[in-house]
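Note to self: the last two entries modelled the partners one at a time, which told us nothing about the interface. This time every component goes in together.
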Amino acid sequence: MDHLPDYKAERRDYLTGFVLALVLTLLPFLAVALPSVSRQTAIYVIAICALLQVVVQLRFFLHIDLSRQKREDLHLILFATLLVLLMVAGTIWIMANLATRMTG
Amino acid sequence: MSRVENKYPGLNLGDHHGSAHEGAESLVFGFWVFLMSDLIIFGLMFATYVTTLNPGAMAGGPGPVELFDINSALIQTLLLLTSTLTFGMASLSLRHEQGKRNLTVWLCVTLVLGLGFLSFELRDFAKMLAAGAGPDRSGFLSAFFGLVPLHGLHVTAGIIWLVIMLIQIHVIGLVPMVKTRLLRLGLFWHFLDIIWIGIFSVVYLWGLA
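The predicted structure of the combined assembly is written out below.
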């Protein structure tokens, strides 16, 4: 078709990512919809599938991976993630602690 | 299969695009910095939301179980996920120079899926508001309406951007400037689906579990 022979391989990559993301979406929805799954199990399934799906989308749609020379993009993701973790975990910790003290 | 080295996040145009590919490196990196700061804003909205997930912050008002509809959440998730795939197909079409027509078709499919997502989301909000569960009802609902519509606003911005790009493709043509704008819109669109993973997991599924 043109001078880039890897079009089909690249399209297959996107479709693979889509199917993986779809499975990782349907699993947690099923876990919540099925009454036989306990709340505890459902929450584990939701958390694990969400983390995996973020990785899948970064890898297949945003083409971020570890096998590159240029790492600034990955560094920025890791730095932003670190900031988010500090602020989110810190906020939840402090507010939960405060809630216990105020109502306990 | 030899891996072509990527210069920037997202699908790379490739060396055969000449100056568009060269110039994209710094432009896309700059946009990536914006996306990561946007991620932090979303992170804080998530944190605020989670701290209001308790009976005290719900102030006797409705909680997740009374408010959320799992079917609507699933439909929105599938629409947005499919739209991220169709945008990927548009990016591939751009990279492999399959022509304006092919590119336009994929972008239009993405546009329709994005509008479908928004219409389901707005229908949910309208139902909540009609039931008296607006942002002024409780701290929990304030946090909900701070987080989920913020994502909806981003999708709206993405849709407006997409329409502008469709016009530019046909009025200006596929010049390097238009190509790099499409690259950045692609990153924005994929980024919004990653944020949505957090929303459907934390807000809808965790709330209904």
